[in-house]
Design goal:
Elements lengths: L6 E4 L16 H12 L3 E5 L4 H10 L8 E4 L3 E5 L4 E3 L1 H18 L3 H11 L3 E5 L2 E6 L3 H15 L5 E6 L2 E6 L4 H12 L6 E4 L16 E4 L5 H9 L3 E2 L4 H12 L5
Parallel strand pairs: 1-2, 1-10, 2-3, 10-11, 11-12
Antiparallel strand pairs: 3-4, 4-5, 6-7, 7-9, 8-9
Helix pairs in contact: 1-8
The protein binds magnesium ion.
Length: 259
């Protein structure tokens, strides 16, 4: 039997993977994915993590299924070539070039921004290879206030966006996020949004939780209320179950398995 879906895009932390759940990634989800992959459905983990941190988390869980694709740091696309995850060169090169050009213009003003944060909050700020400004706030309330300042900072740079996930934030280029990466992957696979499912729990998932990218939208019960509202408003499925069990239930819903 064929599947109504062709592409399944899941966030990792808080969506598939429950930090305080055992197992962190439930069998109910992995067995569904294994079955869908046998029917030719492609699975992408669409995450803010980088390669080593995602590989470590997957290995630690002894996940019995492999994603066909990865979207890492909410921007780069990788395809499993049978041996390893290989970069999708054209997209990733454009992504790197656009970020380098933008960050060269932004960087001279970042020290002042870091001073502003350090003078008002107990927070960790740093630069890494992905962003000239990265934040780990002490609390979500602090992160909300700093987020407002970051939005102000972005105003003179129309291509600059804030990517926020819980107490974490960094900058990115507006053309690269979980949504545009999912759109590119759909284009590569010749899949229409009607055949795509996307599942997420936090702010950095909002760009992909749109029916223009995925007709089937899923949020687990632990998703933040804004995400649940966005999913509900577009006719998506909000589960009463947490993390991977919630995503599995959403998948079953769209596969017509729930009564
Ligand atoms: Mg998440």
């Amino acid at each position: 039997m064929s599947s109504p879906l062709k592409l399944i895009s899941t966030d990792f932390d808080g969506t598939l993977h429950g930090e305080y759940e055992r197992p962190a990634i439930p069998e109910r989800f992995t067995s569904l994915i294994a079955e869908q992959q046998l029917r030719g459905v492609k699975w992408v983990i669409n995450t803010g993590r980088d390669m080593s941190s995602l590989m470590e988390a997957l290995a630690r869980e002894h996940v019995p299924v492999l994603p066909d694709y990865l979207v890492l740091v909410e921007r780069e696309i990788y395809k499993h070539d049978g041996v390893r995850y290989a970069p999708v060169e054209e997209w990733n090169a454009a992504c790197n070039r656009d970020h380098a050009e933008l960050y060269a213009r932004v960087r001279p003003q970042v020290a002042e921004l870091m001073d502003w944060v350090n003078g008002r909050f107990r927070a960790t700020v740093y630069e890494d290879v992905w962003s000239p400004f990265c934040l780990i706030a002490g609390t979500n309330a602090d992160a909300d206030q700093i987020h407002a300042r970051l939005d102000e900072f972005c105003k003179p740079f129309p291509e600059l966006a804030v990517v926020r996930n819980d107490v974490y934030a960094r900058f990115s280029h507006v053309n690269y996020n979980k949504g545009t990466a999912l759109r590119e992957l759909s284009r590569m696979l010749s899949v229409t949004s009607d055949e795509v499912l996307a599942a997420g729990d936090h702010l950095n998932d909002l760009p992909m939780l749109k029916t223009e990218h995925a007709r089937c939208l899923v949020a687990p019960s632990n998703a933040i209320s804004l995400v649940k509202d966005v999913v509900r408003r577009q006719g998506g499925y909000v589960s009463e179950l947490t993390c991977g069990n919630g995503v599995a239930e959403g998948l079953e819903h769209y596969l017509g398995r729930l009564r």
